[in-house]
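Thread: "does anyone have the structure for this chain?"

Original post by V.I.:
We have the sequence but no experimental structure in hand. Need at least a predicted one for the grant figures.
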Amino acid sequence: MKHYETLFVLKPTLTDEERQERFNFIKEVIEKNGGKIAGYEHFGVRKLAYPIQKFERGDYYVIYFEGTSEGVKELERIYRITEDIIRFLTIKYETKKDITAWEKMVQRANKAVQE
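Reply from O.Q.:
Generated one for you, tokens below.
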């Protein structure tokens, strides 16, 4: 299994319940496709660098997980067809140095969630 980080930006007009539903849905997609979630972070609503679909702000989430390339393809397919997700990015960590950095980010994310 490879190490991945995925970031997605939700529309800022969603309610807290809708945001949580979308986040849980993405976590389920990762897990149903053989992925194992190591940690996640919610950065909240932030200003976008430029307007996307007429939105000036977006709600940012990052999920760190281990998975397969087929699982990532399915995740990105889901991102594309989910109207509430306005941007996404998935990064694969391959080298030992990258994986070490990934593990540190997971520890930081898990520590932030516990607080």
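V.I.: this helps a lot. The beta strands are 2-10, 36-52, 55-67, 85-93.
O.Q.: and The two ends are 29 Å apart (CA to CA).
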